[in-house]
Amino acid sequence: MYVDADYVAAVDTSAARVAGVPSDAARVAAARSFPTAVWLDRLAAIDGAKASGGAMGLADHLDAALAQQALKADRGAVPPMAVTIVVYDLPDRDCAAAASNGELSAANGGLATYETQYIDRIAAIVSQPKYAGLRIVTIIEPDSYPNMLTNVGNGHAACDAASANQTYVQGIRYALARFATIPNVSMYLDIAHSGWLGWDNNRSKAIAGYKELIAGATPEGRLDIVRGFATNTANYTPLDEPFFDGTADVIGTGGTTQFYEWNPAIDELTYIDKLRSEFVAAGFPGTLSFIVDTSRNGWGGSGRPTHASADVDDMRIDRRAHRGNWCNVRNAGIGERPRATPDATRPYLDAYLFVKPPGASDGTSDSTATTPNDEGKRFDAMCGSGNVDALQGAPHAGHWFHDQFLMLLRNAYPPLP
Predict the structure, then answer these.
(1) Is the pLDDT score of 78 beyond 90?
(2) What is the Cα gyration radius of the chain?
(3) Max Cα-Cα span within the chain
(4) 323/266 Cα distance (integer angstroms)
(5) What per-residue confidence (pLDDT) applies to 254?
(6) 291 DSSP assignment
(7) What does the angle CA 78 – CA 83 – CA 85 come to, to the nearest 5 degrees?
(8) What are the backbone dihedrals phi and psi of residue 94, each rounded to the nearest 5 degrees, phi first?
(9) Which residues does 198 contact at the CB level (< 8 Å), separation at least 6?
(10) β-bridge mates for residue 139, sequence order
(11) Active-site residue among 6, 89, 92, 143?
């Protein structure tokens, strides 16, 4: 898996700040080898600004991946190198949130711009013959489609508009059709997480919605053009709650009703198990697979429960005050390290990945930043001081947040050496 030099450079800024603390210095040094996804969250990210000392562009990353691949060549055979890119620039994206609504607007021709200046340009780069030996893993449009599915008619005007004008549907279908023609590109559509779509009614709505979305990308109505789905992107839901399951007596018990709210999908492994069987039953191929973002769902450290208790609140490893809290969550830690085929009992689980790089902020805690910046990012109340789970002092989404990074490393589970 590709290690992003820009990420390593950000890690190095934190290394300089903890040089006098051996335990933290060792953790930060270990983080330099983490493979992380490359976020193409605006048009300018495609080209980058490497020549002027700025961030790498997409071609820069792919060239670097080729170099890493060559270094790992063994006995003359060049092993596959996977590069994960997050495709994230839909017009009016994240319709029910505010931290990162993006630079494009449907009212100002954003869909045409998305198709011709964003998707087409990404496709043109990754399809170059010199990159044919790389495996390009695409995580397509985190949050937006689930936002629309679950918030239409619930007081979110932006989601109502996205549904009415079909911006998300048309944009995602265009991306699917375009990338489907490139043999070494694998597509995973974002499908939120168990604390969002885990309820039976939300999940059934998602199955139907995604089936219609994907089938509409090709004249033949093919459902096999996607490799599968990505869950838990930039989120904190654990892979597994080790001391209880999602039976009604657990999720409805007085001490925990407020947390699980009768949602039987209490963790990500339960969620993908349910999704897999239901998608296949709905007509998707048996090859349908999943990846899970484990960049901040480890929940280690001294607060991690070690045994079963009478009250589920005392033994759940997810320590959030509310399961819907998503912004720079306190006391979280990185989870399982990125690796392919991590679970022999789940052949449809392709990988654990660090899709959201540990240390990349979820959103600014500055409540005065109500006007979108040049990246389309602004303050969301979920990141403010009124949310007990949100770390304060946070920069805009995607920017380096040293305090969060160090917290995630200290609370890693499995622990960092």
Answers:
(1) no
(2) 20
(3) 62
(4) 10
(5) 83
(6) E
(7) 165
(8) 50, 60
(9) 263, 264, 265, 266, 270, 271, 274
(10) 86, 188
(11) 143
Cα–Cα dist 28/399, whole Å: 17
The answer to whether 139 touches 86, Cβ cutoff 8 Å, is yes
Q: How far apart are CA 413 and CA 234, in angstroms?
A: 17
Catalytic residue check, 362: yes
For β-strands 185-190 and 228-231, DSSP reports them as: parallel
- In terms of phi and psi (left: phi > 0; alpha: psi -120 to 50; beta: otherwise), the region of 179 is alpha
Give the pLDDT band (50/70/90) at residue 102: confident
Q: What local confidence, expressed as pLDDT, does residue 374 receive?
A: 86
Q: CB–CB of 374/341 below 8 Å?
A: no
Which stretch of DSSP H or E encloses residue 259? helix 257-260
Residue pointed to by tokens 């949050």: 143
pLDDT at 155: 86
Which residue in the list 190, 293, 362, 389 is annotated as catalytic?
A: 362
The Cα angle at residue 82 between residues 78 and 83, in degrees rounded to 5: 125
CA distances from 102 to 48, 119, 144, 263, 285 (A): 17, 15, 11, 31, 33
Enumerate domains of the chain plus CATH numbers.
5-410 (3.20.20.40)
Beta carbons of 69 and 81 less than 8 angstroms apart: yes
Is the CB of residue 299 less than 8 Å from the CB of residue 264? Answer: no
pLDDT digits (tens, 9 = 90+) for 196-254: 999 999 999 999 999 999 999 999 999 999 999 999 999 999 999 999 999 998 998 88
The Cα–Cα gap between 417 and 409 comes to 10
For the chain, what is the mean pLDDT?
95
| Beta-carbon contacts of residue 142 (< 8 Å; ≥ 6 apart) | 86, 88, 190, 230, 233, 234, 355
* Residue whose token pair is 């989870």: 335
| Number of CB atoms found within 10 A of residue 347's CB | 11
Nearest residue to 293 via CA among 245, 331, 239, 348: 239
